[in-house]
Amino acid sequence: MTPPNSPTRTSRMTSDQKPDIDLSFEFFPPKSEVAEARFWTSLEKLVPLGPRFVSVTYGAGGSTRERTLRMVSRITAETGIDAAAHLTCVGASRGEVDDVVRGFYDAGVRRIVAIRGDPVAGIGEKFIPHADGYANAGELVAGIKKIGNFDISVAAYPERHPESADWAEEIDNLKRKRDAGAARAITQMFFDNSDFWRFMERVEKSGLNMPIVPGIQPIHNFTRISSFAKSCGASIPEWLADRFDGLEDDATTHALVAASLAAEQVSELLDGGVRQFHFFTMNDATQALALARVLGASSE
Ligand code: FAD
């Protein structure tokens, strides 16, 4: 997979020339009835695209345990689309985490996005595992595999995880997760594709043979996304901030700028050979649906 020196405009091929695109969509468990109604409306719009799976996040410390389980169970049972439950191991014993995994299995869920979670004291603070808990995502993946033959995705970081001292540590960690049984890695959001291409080069050089799926974050609200990005170690390029400068009170232009930048990002990834995309939807299908269509996906 290489960055396109001279774009081939794969994204504008006619339908019989188009490559197969594999999509997944990430949601979070809604907190209210109104939010839940919006969740299902958004999901219904994306289901006809035939995604590989739809994932639902899991609050660190298990704060969303029941809601995540309820949503993934319903997705699996009602839409015919595979649901993937995120699972974190922060602040929980191995026994507690294993019980959650069994609960997912009993509900018919066969996919898990296995994530360590952020330190209880906050992002950037030292991570202290539960005394009887899984210490990291690699251990979590191994624990899940002992319970059932789940399809497991893990996290990867094109700009490096803030706790990794160097790239060797970062890639070694990804290898441990793959060796424990992860089928693919989904990346943290990134806004400069050159970060992704450099990361892919590192992965390929290391001999790590594992599908890496770019995590695409459409910018619904630049102020919110940029503060979230900074908190998880994803940088906001100056040119990106410039594009949104002064648009705080102009929702229409903001949405158009966001849509065109995201379309540019995914088109370039497609031209560079990427065929799998994971969209962080924030429970709103609008941008993810538009981007899927830009990539050539259409309703089945
Ligand atoms: P790990 O893979 O365990 O890595 C964390 C750090 O520890 C890395 O620096 C790694 O190098 C180091 N490390 C791990 N094992 C070892 C070892 N054996 N020796 C030395 N160093 C080691 N958070 C949520 O709370 N809920 C979610 O649903 C959620 N979903 C996410 C989905 C995606 C696609 C992504 C990219 C992130 C998600 N997160 C979620 C955020 C995640 O919790 C944080 O990024 C967290 O800080 C790290 O999780 P991880 O699974 O990457 O951790």
Mean pLDDT: 93
How many strands in all?
A: 9
Series of secondary-structure elements, N-terminal to C-terminal: EHEHEHEHEHEHEEHHHEH
Please tell me what the overall shape is: globular
Number of helices: 10
CATH fold descriptor: TIM Barrel
Low-confidence stretches: none
| Count of discrete structural domains | 1
Fraction of residues in β-strands: 5-15%
Helix share, percent: 40-55%
- Spatial strand arrangement across the major sheet: 7-6-5-4-3-2-1-9-8
Radius of gyration computed on alpha carbons: 19 Å
Characterise the protein shown here.
By secondary structure, the protein is an alpha/beta fold. The chain has one domain (22-294): TIM Barrel (Alpha-Beta Barrel). It has helices spanning 33-46, 65-79, 94-106, 137-147, 167-180, 193-205, 222-231, 238-244, 251-271, 285-294, and strands at 22-27, 53-56, 83-88, 111-115, 151-156, 184-187, 212-213, 215-216, 276-280. It has a 9-stranded parallel β-sheet, covered by helices on one side. Helix 4 (137-147) packs parallel to helix 5 and helix 9 packs parallel to helix 10. The longest helix has 21 residues, at 251-271. The chain is globular. It starts with 21 loop residues before the first strand and ends in a 6-residue tail after the last helix. The model has no long low-confidence stretch (mean pLDDT 93). Bound molecules: flavin-adenine dinucleotide. Flavin-adenine dinucleotide binds at residues 57-58, 60, 86, 88, 113, 115-118, 136-138, 155, 161, 163-164, 169-170, 173, 177, 186, 188, 215, 232.
